[in-house]
Amino acid sequence: MSVTVKGSIARHFVLAMFVTVLVSETVFGQLTSFEEPPIDYMNAEVNDAVTRLSAQLESGETRLEHDAHGYLTSVLRAMDIAVSSQILVFSKTSMQMQRISPSRDP
Predict the structure, then answer these.
(1) How far apart are CA 83 and CA 56, in angstroms?
(2) Which of the 8 DSSP states describes residue 67?
(3) How high is the mean pLDDT in each 10-residue block of the chain (106 residues)?
(4) Phi (first) and psi of residue 70, to 5 degrees
(5) Strand ranges (DSSP E) for the chain?
(6) What global pTM score does this model have?
(7) Distance separating alpha carbons of residues 53 and 68, to the nearest angstrom
(8) What is the three-class DSSP state of 73?
(9) Within a 10 A sphere around the Cβ of 64, how many other Cβ atoms?
């Protein structure tokens, strides 16, 4: 191998290592920045509809009822979500076409 080829390989190797370190630091920095103020996801108090419903279920304040649709209707009602807001989309290209096809028998 000539000196020029060896030098070129070495330069490419150093460049590849530099890019790897740069990308790693950028990705790692982005991942850890969410764990620091002002966001601080790891320590922030969670206060959303699912957390509130979970607390109500644990305390016995709310009880879910099972019907023909499972617990869906009861969960939607408990979270104050209109049943009419829920839709099912049928797609010819779906990977689950056998399960969600409109021609599927109930």
Answers:
(1) 21
(2) B
(3) 61 77 59 72 84 93 92 92 85 76 59
(4) 80, -135
(5) none
(6) 0.48
(7) 21
(8) helix
(9) 16
